[in-house]
User: Fold Homogentisate 1,2-dioxygenase from Croceivirga thetidis.
Amino acid sequence: MPIYHKLGKIPRKRHTQFEKPDGSLYYEQLFGTIGFDGMSSLLYHIHRPTQIKSIGEPLDLTPKIAVAKNILSRKLIGFDVQPKDDFLDAREPLLVNSDVHVGLAAPKKSMTGYFYKNSDADEMLFIHRGTGTLKTFLGDIPFEYGDYLIIPRGMIYQIEFDTEDNRILYVESFHPIYTPKRYRNWFGQLLEHSPYCERDYKLPQNLKAHDEKGEFVMKIKKQGMLHSLVYATHPFDVVGWDGYNYPYGFSIHNFEPITGRVHQPPPVHQTFETSAFVVCSFCPRLYDYHPKAIPAPYNHSNIDSDEVLYYVDGDFMSRTGIGPGYISLHPAGIPHGPHPGTYEASIGKKGTEELAVMIDTFKPLQVTENALKIDDGEYYKSWVE
Ligand SMILES: [Fe+2]
Assistant:
């Protein structure tokens, strides 16, 4: 996250004695990425963050692949993913490769009995339904419908829901998730042509340090396994921190669409980037205003990237038979385009209310067993007239 942020109390100078009220010392931790080269924060703990008491049996969460080499366009009925109580149990990986796992979850209960950390992947949670609070050891981020939550790898968190009706699109990215480089200046500030700016971010707030000893279960995802470690001190014992490595939120409703006289290509919708995939936001916007404009997209051959669209709300103008929570997969290797009738029907329309999240991956995606269970199986034929 290329903005400096700080919460709580920190010593005037880094790596110096920082005394508790009783004269003993707080424990400093450098929480960094990409060796010592990436973004980092300096944290001050009440207790040493290294006190492991015991470890349980790991659980293998490796996605089960049904179609390793896919050529079919697919439509997944996302809301058919069944709600489950636990946040991690509820996650169903659907489309995966060695760079990214894309899945859906409908968790009912808040995470209270344990803490969670993904040590392999940055996580992006897109909140389709539900409100609550992302609680981390660097502070809290309240969330609501339309929020992206970007959680850098290693972040210890819990998620608290206000009700049982929650729907989340999640991404585990094995590469850091950044804002698009072309929207940042040499110093990292978002430029004037960026579709959003720093004011739109939801930064962590309300840092609360828990000075507690006991048994604290931390579930750590690493190399596809979920390890269960018991720590002797409360993981949220940070009294203060500062730096650049922390979770943040951004609402899709704050994405300001870029429009033109003729059809604008998908990169104008880009919201986040990694070295292996991009995330785009398709938001309500005015249509192209050339007198002869065709607002629906042209057919396109994304010959070397797989396109995943998650439909959130509104009518999706280039598709028929699509509802909220659906996922379409248009794989590399074959062209795709508007459904019959939608190309012509878009002419003369002034705007769209569509809301969707797109994930384009540079490597092909594999289709999991979970995905096949909610695959309509007919979608690839839906362009035949
Ligand atoms: Fe497309």
Remarks:
- Helices lie at 342-345, 369-373.
- The pocket of fe (ii) ion is lined by residues 300, 307, 330, 336 (CB under 6 Å).
- DSSP finds two helices and 29 strands in the chain.
- The CA atoms of residues 136 and 157 lie 4 Å apart.
